[in-house]
Design goal:
The chain is built from 20 helices and 7 strands. With 412 residues, the chain is α/β, with parallel strands linked by helices. The chain folds into 3 domains: 157 residues; 182 residues, Rossmann fold; 51 residues. The protein starts with 9 loop residues before the first helix and ends with a helix. This is Disease resistance protein RGA3.
Length: 412
């Protein structure tokens, strides 16, 4: 069972795996000669994803696991921003090369600059704000080592406790889980959501919860709820809050979370959904047997599917993805999509669209304060930090992820 206070890191790890498998990351690895290190990192992330998926449901019974999942989240955040820098560098070099080809008068200057940039590139997370070619493997190795350290601690706890989990399971929890599996959990028309990591989104969360848990939105086809907003505005964070809410956990028989890469197709997405449900790698290559397997899993079950960060507006592709869901998922199932694009919401025929606006300066300030200063006592002891924080918040332009990145950049 998960609650609103639980730590859920597996979707972020899945997103990292998609990043590593992207064309831009492959290009970066080839240009900087680090293909082998990236392959090793991919394997490490796969192991971490498997470990996180197995332990997220156990943290309610072992607070040590929750602390380790928080540690893993910190490493994953660092890895996400680092890979983001690598991808940006690959894109910048590609665009710069195109500009040089178009303007012959700048070619001699550009060649001189490239001699330097062949060895260095801009990197936000060290004091020099630069990363040398020879330093890249150490950065990747550092991320791998941090993940390995957390995984080893998790494995030690799991080995020690797995044999006793069944005996420790509270009888009330058993009954509630049984009710959930029967699909007869009493539905709450007004659910109060409390989460200390989400700011300024309570009304949006309430609106989504109402659509998820109310029977009045049941349709022949599985209804879609879309969360639309610019990059970094908090779409994924809001979806994660909903996904792990205890009312949602008990209401749906099956939950699946898929981070949708920009080069996804029907086969990749279908396989990702199946892997999210089964938590096992699926070697099936053809889409038809994958869809049949999904039908078997969904039959007679109430499903919640989150498709995170959709870019493609290919209507035929998304219709094909939803075929097994509409064919066999039980009435009451729901799909949540997050996207930057209005057109995606339209082609998915969303029955409820949540347009996320920038956070107020007040909420953005609270988010930054929580991340940087920890509590009011420390903030009050050092009023100069509060002033610095207020200035940094203004630079963030009320974007949630910018507040977090600004804080992390300041401590790295």
């Amino acid at each position: 069972m998960a609650t609103t206070a639980d730590v859920v890191v597996s979707p972020w790890l899945e997103g990292l795996l998609n990043q590593l498998d992207s064309p831009w990351m492959i290009k970066f690895g080839s240009e900087w000669g680090i293909q082998e290190q990236l392959i090793d990192l991919f394997r490490t992330l796969q192991e971490a994803h498997a470990m996180a998926s197995s332990t997220e449901d156990m943290q309610i019974r072992d607070p040590h696991l929750k602390l380790l999942l928080k540690d893993m989240t910190e490493v994953v955040c660092k890895a996400t921003y680092t890979l983001g820098e690598f991808i940006y560098e690959a894109q910048r070099r590609s665009l710069e090369g195109a500009d040089d080809d178009d303007d012959e008068s700048k070619q001699s200057t550009s060649r001189a600059i490239r001699k330097v940039r062949c060895e260095y590139f801009s990197y936000s997370f060290n004091k020099k704000q630069l990363l040398c070619r020879d330093e890249i493997p150490a950065v990747i190795t550092g991320i791998k080592n941090e993940l390995h350290e957390v995984q080893q601690k998790m494995n030690h706890i799991c080995v020690a406790s797995v044999s006793s989990i069944g005996r420790k399971l509270n009888e009330t929890e058993r009954k509630l889980k049984a009710i959930s599996l029967l699909g007869s959990c009493p539905q709450s028309q007004s659910v109060s959501l409390v989460d200390d990591k989400i700011f300024g989104r309570s009304e949006d969360a309430e609106d989504i919860m109402h659509v998820l848990l109310s029977d009045i939105y049941n349709r022949e086809k599985v209804p879609v709820i879309s969360i639309v907003g610019t990059g970094g505005i908090g779409k994924t964070a809001l979806a994660q809050l909903i996904y792990r809410d205890e009312n949602v956990v008990y209401h749906f028989d099956v939950r699946a979370w898929v981070c949708v890469s920009q080069d996804s197709d029907v086969t990749k997405i279908t396989r990702s959904i199946l892997e999210s449900i089964t938590r096992k790698h699926q070697a099936i290559e053809r889409v038809e047997p994958l869809q049949q397997e999904l039908k078997n899993w969904f039959k007679g079950k109430k499903l919640l599917l989150v498709l995170d960060d959709i870019w493609s507006d290919d209507c035929k592709m998304w219709d094909a993805v939803r075929v097994p869901i509409n064919a066999s998922a039980q009435k009451g199932s729901r799909i949540i999509v997050t996207t930057r694009f209005n057109k995606v919401s339209s082609i998915m025929s969303a029955i409820k669209r949540i347009d996320l606006e920038a956070l107020s300066y007040e909420h953005c300030g609270e988010l930054f304060k929580r991340k940087a200063f920890i509590d009011d006592e420390i903030c009050n002891k050092h009023p100069n930090l509060k002033k610095i924080g207020e200035e940094l918040v203004k630079k963030c332009k009320r974007v949630a992820s910018s507040s977090k990145i600004t804080w992390r950049t300041s401590i790295w």
